[in-house]
Amino acid sequence: MKEPSPREPGWRRPLQWLKPRRTIRPTRDGWWCLGAAVGLGFAAVNTGNNLLYLLASLLLALIVVSGILSEQSIRLLHLRAALPEEIYAARPVRLGARVLNRKRWLPSYSVALEASHHRLYIARLGAGDERLLTWEATFTARGLQRLPGMRLLTLFPFGLFLKAGRVEVDDEVVVFPAVRPLDSAWRRRVAAGGARALHRRGRGHDLYSLREYREGDDYRLIHWRSSAKAAALIVRELEAETASNTRIVLVGDGTRTAARLEAAMSEAASLAVHLLDAGAAVELAGPGVYVPPGHGRGHRRRLLTALALYDPATAAAPPGGRSAGASEIEVALG
Amino acid sequence: MSPLSSRALTAAIYLLVADGIAALFLGGLLDLPGLVVVAALVAGSWWQESLRHRLEPLPWLGAVLMGVAGAALVVEIVTGAGGMLDVFTHLLIFLLLVKLYTLRALRDARDVTFLSFFMLVAASPVTTSLVFLGLFITFLVVGTWLLMLRHLMNEADIVAGPTSRIGRDLVHLALASSAATVVVTALLFLVIPRIGQAALPLRAQTSRMVAGFTERVQLGAFGEIEADATVVMRVHLTSFNGGGAPETLPSLRWRGVAFDHFDGRTWTVSRSTLKLTLRRELPVPFPVHQFYGGPVLTQEIRLEPIESQMIFGAPRLLRLHTRSDFVTVDDLGNVAVPQATARLQYTVDSEPEIGDPRRADIADARQPHEPRWQARYTQLPRVSPRIHALAREVTAGSVDPYDAALRLTAWLNGELAYTRVLERPTTDDPLEDFLFVRRAGNCEYFAAALAVMLRSLQIPARVVNGFQRGEWNPYGRYFMVRLRDAHSWVEVFVDGAGWVTLDPSPRAGAEASAPATPAVLWLDSMRVSWYRYVVSFSLHDQLAVVDVVRQATWTLGATALRPADWRPGFRLAAAGAALVVVLVVVVGWQRRRSVAAGAAMPGFYARALRVLARRGLAPGAGETAREFARRAPAAPWAPPLAQLTGAYERVRFGGAALAPDEAAAVDAALADLALAVRVKGH
After folding, report:
1. Is B542 exposed, middle or buried (0-12, 13-18, 19+ CB in 10 A)?
2. CB A93 within 8 A of CB A87
3. Burial class (CB in 10 A: 0-12, 13-18, 19+), A138
């Protein structure tokens, strides 16, 4: 997950202060209330009738109390994004936000979180309590994407005014290219690179050892000849296999068609994920991008991040050389 | 969601409707038959859903009913059959009934709230009753509750979020909101400038014609009202510079109108009376009577409309503060203002009669040696010689006129009986009948008899009508004067002392009316406060409040600058205030600390990143904090960074602040990190 962005430059901070902390907009009921208060005030001034002054004061007091209580409800509420570690383009993902009530004594009532087109409601959030709110979203493109701004708002207590806080979480996330299952053509290309025994138990094809049958073993693995000799059921243990170490080479500069470039990024990402899951060491090379061979989750993130952030405009010549014993698969950028 | 699906919301809706209709009734905009009809229709709307199902086969019925009612309203408006306020009231009732019979959506609850509110608005110009305050408070509390409940139901309806937990808090929230609204309403009411025309209601109170306070009064005029307990006047004694509690002053009464001419049955203000109409030129009080140098009693008086233009106040009335631009003063000491139909509020300064008048020697209070003056105040019709004889007999041996007057007063007080039964079976002279036949009468007969007997002895005297002091209300600290307190007495001229009050009526001993209960007194005090601080609140009052606040602030500020002069209570308050300030600062500081600890990027981790950044070590794009910490496991800074990263994850994702021991460990790890980075640098 990306860390919070650094603070604004010094010269911008005063401008931040100029931004209102809250925005207030009357609802339809609020407009009614305001209109009635103005009308009554006019009538009171015109007639000097103190009871009309009293009723006008009541409407104004409702507006004032509404402002105080809504501020009390929304103040010291802290909003933090809760994002998944990996976000892939074109794949639905659950985004979330944690709302923390930092008030020491007072709960917050009737607060809504507005994010993108979603509005999530919290009826009551006790003092010091935190609530996780989640919603589903889909990023259509890879790369650095701006998160939909989130803000807290409330109509509490009378529904007369909509009070909203500033947009608080306004950050960027790295969206990896879309990862899809490899189609048959790509599987053949991967298989052409060959498989490599890993000299440990696994699910490959070569025999690793024999042992006595244990409950739950696959019957198809019973070695009948050895079983006959030993007068007990003997099963085969197979040797683990992995795809051979692979170098994915991005060919071309990707400047011709954007659609082809995005498809190529998706293919490269899908290929890299497939190979890493199969245990292969994967290396990525292309114009302006190079990730040395590696395994594991961290390496997968590095590869996907490199593909996510690939920009043909800043591409340079691909580095030469090739890791010993690695097969090579080319992905055309177009 | 339908409002009827919530019992609480339904109850609130009908409470508000009842409140609004009660306001219309209170203001006289709805008479009793109308109230019954509207109440029945409102009650019928409770079953509107089942009614709607039954009437589904008649879809035109609703349209026809609405059309007829709408047409009636249009006719009423066009023909001007009722006043605008009546038309407005009928429109409100019509819309309310339509809403109640078509109550389906939550927005209908809002509409009912507004309609009920406007019913209060409609009633406000035509009532000043204290009951309005009760209806106002009811509307405020129930309306607040309804608006809050409706909002929460609406939100739950839209976003389908969990709302169960808030239900328990709703009552407390609504009550707190209501209390806050009451306070803010009171403050706003206080500060909104009164730049309107008047502080009086649009429609004046229906005044009541009360006999006895005009310039012509027949004997027995008070008979009807002497049993009426209606409160007509409230007298606040605001200041008295004579020492002691002013409410304990003896013989306190409220003088209204004095008469100088008697025809045997009727007392009148003679045509020869000199009258002077004073026009206000400056915002100063109107002068009424010459000041003799005694203590001054200030009274703030609220007089209900009794169809009398007279100003009442304790004798001798010196000055009058009133909003009226014209005041009429005559040489009998009568004061009148030309505003008989509205409630009157004014302040008078009086110089009460204290001490023995025979000891007074006021140069300005010498008896004029004018025959006309003497003739005016000793004028008599043809009266029975028996009355003259009786006067001489009672006053035989008197040392001076005042002594004679006292003897006559004591005789009347002791020998004759007080009664309110005034039927006279004979056509004899009323005073003769009173003195020699019935030997009983009300205060008017006693006063007339004394005045006539004094005049028969050539002692200047006049009859005065006014009110007895009334009942002291300790809750509001004012005298509550009722119609039955209407009273007559006599003023006799004492050389060197002026006109002196004498009351020959043994009324106090004869009357045995039960005193008002504490509840009645308290309620009346509330009513007075309502009139004083709400109905009659004016720009003048606002300025007075501002002045009080300004003076209090100035006094407080001046005192605060001289700690040596602080009183013990002030010292205690100052110490308490200082303690509160310290507590607020400490709590605020602790809260800022806890807030800082729970921030998105804990401070200690940001510091660690800055330390590493000085050596060119920074997390890469897409690299998590944990990955960054594991980037170089063999590096000397890896162990402290791993420790800091663990703490960072606990704080940031665990949502918890660091415990004191954890904070100490983090500080140590930061120091180790800084050292490791420095060593690597070397």
Report:
1. middle
2. yes
3. exposed
Q: How far apart are CA A54 and CA A34, in angstroms?
A: 15
- Whether the predicted pLDDT of A293 surpasses 50: yes
Nearest chain A Cα distance for residue B623, angstroms: 7
Token couple for A196: 């490599």
Q: Is pLDDT above 50 for A2?
A: no
Average pLDDT over residues B128-154: 89
Contacts of A66 (CB under 8 A, 6+ apart): A157, A158, A160, A161
Closest chain A residue to B602, measured at CA:
A4
Report helix, strand or coil for B365: helix
pLDDT-derived band of residue B403, with 50, 70 and 90 as boundaries?
very high
Query: Does B235 or A147 have the greater pLDDT score?
Result: B235
CA distance B534 to B404: 51
Rounded to a whole number, what is the distance in Å from the CA of B75 to chain A's nearest CA?
26
Residue of B nearest to A305 (CA): B622
Nearest to A123 among B114, B165, B194 (CB): B165
Residues 6+ apart with CB under 8 A from B112: B13, B16, B17, B96, B99, B100, B103
User: Which residues of chain B does A73 touch, with a Cβ-Cβ cutoff of 8 Å?
Assistant: none
pTM over 0.80: no
Query: Two tokens at B208?
Result: 């009541």
Q: How sure is the predictor about A185, in pLDDT bands with cuts at 50, 70 and 90?
A: confident
d(CA A153, CA A23): 9
> Which residues of B are less than 8 Å from A54 in CB distance?
124, 136, 185, 189, 534
B120·A50 Cβ contact <8 A? no
Structure ipTM over 0.85, yes or no: no
Distance between CA atoms of B413 and B507, rounded to whole angstroms? 9
